[in-house]
Amino acid sequence: MDMTASYGPDDALNQARQAAADLLQNRNPTYSLPQPFYNDARFFALDMQEVFEKEWLFAGMTCEIPAKGNFMTLEIGDNPVVIVRGAEGVIHAFHNVCRHRGSRLCTKEKGKVAKLVCPYHQWTYELDGRLLFAGSDMGTNFDLNEFGLKPINVRNAGGFIFINLSEEAPAIDDFLVTLEHYLEPYDMDNVKVATQTSIVEQANWKLVIENNRECYHCNGAHPELLNSLIEFDDTEDPRATDKYKDLVTRKQADWNNEQVPWQLKRFGKRNRLTRTPLLDNVVSMTMDGKPGCNKLMGRLTSPDMGSLRILHLPNSWNHFMGDHAVVFRVLPLGPQLTMVTTKWLVHKDAVEGVDYDPERLRHVWDATNDQDRQLAEENQRGINSRAYQPGPYSETYEFGVIDFVNWYGERMLTHLGHDTPALH
Ligand code: 3BY
Ligand code: FES
Ligand code: FE
């Protein structure tokens, strides 16, 4: 008897692979994606296998695990991950899965330990993943060396930690070199998380990213954010006014004096970095535009640094100002469920209640995140309708969305073993 027939889910996933490849090869690259990419459980499984388990992901900040033994955990779909600071400051990432019977090893989101001890039967691992101790009854042939934690690729630059769950991680060095350079003025070894939040949105992760990649919706949705943000960030943008170009010229002279990089850099469609001015006479993303933290970051002497914007597809966008930074991480939880984690960073020596008030620091992005959550959720509800069909993106207002969906399509097709169609 052919036993493979009983493995229905594999057949379904293979069918989804073929369907996804066909749809991606035949889609209009300036239109939103066909419905199953946003709501189908098997397409979601593909996203996890082919994108989140194969691409580099933003996991967290090095300042969250400042000392030996500090760890943080996160979940990439069904895969628990632990990131730990070992000897000599080295950062390790492991599958957070005990090699005895597979229990999740670290259960807290963050903490500090001398060794990694499994809560189930106390198998004990060194911070570099070696198994040190496995009880007394594993038999004489038991070799500790065969049961170390499974490592995950991990890289860090400019205070950002990236992980990659595949054996063949794509190249990322050129981006990391630039990231390190752009973050040098912020002295990322001397920052801390002042406050953080995680919200869960009832929307596919791609709708969360798509929403973030355009400010077409800002005017209608984000009164708090528009106290500081300009809706475009490039003098080449078709919307850029002469007034904006003048502002950029003035600010770039200031930034040159402060020796902070501002040039727009791209690494394929995956990464984009640029420093852009905030509204004139505004220095930070606060309600009144004044600094949210009185102690500036790193070696900066002026709070007026605009916003250094850093994009990392598939799961992060960031704003670095003179006084504080806001970093964002997106993790898919289900076909129509996504977690967005926001962390506000300040100088390590800034004192809460003296230099900054967490509530004031968070006000703009708490409001903005909630507004974006509603937009993504309404987008999802409409897309679930039988009336939904892909619609056209504006090439002026939504080129960032076009870039994202085309990055997604290209990476998906590559991982599915298909050539990518030539995109215009
Ligand atoms: O609570 C935790 O997450 C700790 C205990 C076991 C291992 N882990 C680092
Ligand atoms: Fe970890 Fe048993 S499952 S010690
Ligand atoms: Fe928004």
TrEMBL record:
Signal peptide bounds: none
Keywords: 2Fe-2S, Dioxygenase, Iron, Iron-sulfur, Metal-binding, Oxidoreductase
Pfam families on file: Rieske, Ring_hydroxyl_A
Source superkingdom: Bacteria
PROSITE patterns noted in UniProt: RIESKE
EC number assigned by the record: 1.14.12.1
InterPro entries: Rieske_2Fe-2S (IPR017941), Rieske_2Fe-2S_sf (IPR036922), Ring_hydroxy_dOase_asu_C_dom (IPR015879), Rng_hydr_dOase-A (IPR001663)
Residues annotated as domain Rieske: 56-163
Gene Ontology MF term list: 2 iron, 2 sulfur cluster binding; anthranilate 1,2-dioxygenase (deaminating, decarboxylating) activity; iron ion binding
Cofactor: Fe cation
Keyword Iron-sulfur part of the UniProt annotation: yes
The name this protein goes by in its record: Anthranilate 1,2-dioxygenase large subunit
Native organism: Kushneria phyllosphaerae
